[in-house]
Amino acid sequence: AKLKGARVIGSAGSQEKCDWLLDEGGCDVALNYRDYKDAAALTKALAAAAPDGVNCYFENVGGMHLEAALNCIAMGGRMALCGMISMYNNAEPEPGPPNLINLIGRSVLAQGFIVSVYLHLAPQFAAEVAPLLAAGKIKFRESVYDGLEEAPSAFIGLFQGENFGKAVIRVGPDRL
Question: 171 lies in which domain range?
């Protein structure tokens, strides 16, 4: 998004991760969500970071993040709904955010996002993104766990914020 000229606001669960988002990840603002006790506090911080509203939002967390985004979404904003990790292990379903009406009132386009639906675009994606990766213009981090025996702890770590970037299970030697 940054390479396309967007102002980028990131969110992470530690100061170290926020520092990486700012220093390496290309974010203009990084919010440590653990600094905010509720959706109202996170909304205030997000509104300060995006005073004209949030035009594009990638939903991967749910809970107070989604509520804050709905509070700050701009008229005509867009949301890609990829996941809601904050709700995955709940014994009882959480009630929806009280502000879903903002999707209607602000004429927001919200669409589910599953990578497999877009596999036909993989060649186009690779042609555009591979040179940017090779040039170091897109940065990423991985938490690599060696062996399938590490999969359970890696999975649990996702819900506890132990990973830094994408969690990857290495099951064999690296090969190019």
Answer: 141-176
94 & 164 share domain: no
Question: Could you give the CA distance from residue 166 to residue 163 in angstroms, rounded to a whole number?
Answer: 7
Mean pLDDT of 22-26: 95
Q: CA nearest 13: which of 162, 145, 154?
A: 162
Q: Would you put residue 144 in left (φ > 0), alpha (ψ -120 to 50) or beta? A: beta
Q: Convert the pLDDT of each residue in 39-80 to its tens digit.
A: 999 999 999 999 999 999 999 888 899 999 999 999 999 999
Q: What is the DSSP string of 30-69?
A: EEEGGG-SSHHHHHHHHHHH-TT-EEEEEESS-HHHHHHH
Other CB atoms within 10 A of residue 54 CB? 22
> Are residues 45 and 82 both part of a single domain?
yes
9 beta partners: 29
Mean pLDDT of 146-163: 88
